[in-house]
Fold this protein.
Amino acid sequence: MPLTDKFGRQITDLRISVTDRCNFRCVYCRSADPENHVAGHELLRWDEFERLARILVGMGIRKVRVTGGEPLVREGVEDFIARLKEIGVADLSMTTNGHLLAERCERLVAAGLDRINISLDSLDPARFEQVTRTKSFGKVMAGIDAAQASRLRPVKVNAVLVRGLNDGEVEAFAEFARDRDLIMRFIEYMPLDADRHWSRDLVVTAAEVKRRIEARSPLVPIAHEPSETARKYKFADGRGEIGLVAPVSQPFCGHCSRIRLTADGKLRTCLFSKDDHDLKYLLRGGSSDDEIAGAIRDVVAEKEEGHRINEPDFRPPSRTMVFIGG
């Protein structure tokens, strides 16, 4: 029986955060304060992630995205990718900051990774350093090149736009997509930053991004599934593709097909869920696969109708992005 919620939405996509650790400290995600990781024994083991993935694939999950933190900082992630493929995941992807990608790309491809998203929030090395609080621009660009030269092509490059920080680079990012023949995705800034600096004034809307790009280069819509997060466009006169992800200005909750598993074994039915649902307790408490599947079905049945960002009583979740998983 398909995994569905009380609104009739079928759940087919799973985001698995394999670690809360990251080698970047991006201003829209992580605090500049000292690290505050979940203790190692609190994280799920690889075999526990695999067991949950196998149960969920049996319940209709077709797409899995491996995230973090930064997934490549956890040893063994390539073997985990291979096991997910063996389980029968139809569409297997990863989101990474790209810092370690150039040296790991071949292994990820060999393991069976189908697609990759790489975060790049500025094309200017100095501004990149300001956003990420690292000096890793060259390594990220090398990672993009390595992935684009592999069967992961076309690479998706993600930029979170923040007003007054990197919003002046919209046109440059569009040209980057054309020059490299890749997919450039612009993501609206969401209230998930650790320093709680988010405000609506800092959001660069998808409509503004599209208007600015089209002032230079006409765009042609590309058909997409209703549950996809991005509205996609190709350039009318050349290579490259644009994706606009607009959770703030144009919420797509009505067609949401996603659930999330955190690194410490909590199931979340929305990025902005108020509650976590502990699956680690069941895994380590002797529950059978059928019992775990039943618990998952009960949680998913009560999935939120939407994230409520635009409601007057909205409150951000207690966990920030790095602890939830992208």
